[in-house]
Amino acid sequence: MMRQNNIHNNQIHPLSIVQMNDVSASYDSKNNILRNIRLSIQRGTNYAIVGQSGSGKSTLLKLINGMMNPSNGIVKVNYQTPNFREKSFKKFVAKIGYIPQNLGLVKNTTVLENVMIGALPRLGSFKSFFKIFPDKEIADAYNILKMVGLDDKAERKTYMLSGGERRRVAIARALMQKPDLLLADEIVSELDHVTAVEIMDVIADAQKKFELTSIMVHHDMSLALEYANRVAVIKNGEKVLEIGVEGDEIVDFQTGNLTQKEILEQYNESEK
After folding, report:
1. For residue range 171-206, what is the model confidence (pLDDT) as tens digits?
2. How far is CA 237 from CA 44, 80, 135, 219, in A?
């Protein structure tokens, strides 16, 4: 089981791919969406961030991929401060597969064309501009589509797909980046439970196959506990709980060992 690593001063843990030290974030420079967040995410972890809408979960992902800067504190991703002006971070961000809440798909293009977008950062500027893809990249895309269960829909327009299928396309596009880090923002929201489990299974299989670190935002604590090996709970912009998961056993490092039922009861009570 992966132990929680405390961050003291500016120390960077050698196994961590993401660290935050007393991080706060604001969209208007006045009201902080996040306050004093401290976390350390080790490589290879399936990490879940759980909370209700407006709690600051999505903001955490934006801090990690450099889409916004903290108002206070320190963020380190792959030992670097997320900053697109730095060449080293720009190079690494191409290895971050980010799936936003709206999925970011181009609806009037085919499934294959959407997935190939993930390969663009690896191409030279000429090939990228004209979308000239080597045969190997196309073969890789078909292999990924087969893995996510869409190999028979490669030429179908994205707008013709179901909600679950569109999420599979978004996962495939992220995997086409050959990422070290996968970020997914509420990817199973608005799906029925059966479809949500199917999507989570796809991500779990991909994480094992490609040895990814995944950070997923959820509002469903039960799904988070089923698939993650670390779960952080965010409430009103603050991290109020972080637990480790070993199979069906839950270890709460703040209040002792709890059963899954007790954690769910505690979470549901805190959200009332």
Report:
1. 999 999 999 999 999 999 999 999 999 999 999 999
2. 26, 24, 46, 14
What single-letter DSSP state applies at residue 188?
T
pLDDT value of residue 184: 98
- H/E element holding 63? helix 57-64
CB contact burial 191-207 (16+ within 10 A = b; e otherwise)? beeebbebbbebbeebb
Angstrom distance (rounded) from CA 19 to CA 4: 11
* Alpha carbons 266 and 256: distance in angstroms, whole number: 13
Cβ-based neighbour number of residue 28 at 10 Å? 8
Rounded to whole angstroms, the Cα distance separating 239 from 246 reads 21
* pLDDT higher at 183 or 254: 183
Q: What is the pLDDT of residues 81-135, one digit of tens each?
A: 998 888 888 889 999 999 999 999 999 999 999 999 999 888 876 566 557 888 9
Spell out the alpha helix ranges (H) of 85-217: 87-93, 111-116, 125-130, 135-147, 163-176, 193-210
Q: What ranges do the domains of the chain cover?
A: 105-178
CA 208 vs CA 3, 195, 203, 270: distances in Å: 20, 20, 9, 33
Residues pairing with 34 in the sheet: 25
Report whether pLDDT(33) > 80: yes
Helix (H, G, I), strand (E, B) or coil at 109: coil
List phi, psi (to 5°) of 222.
-65, -40
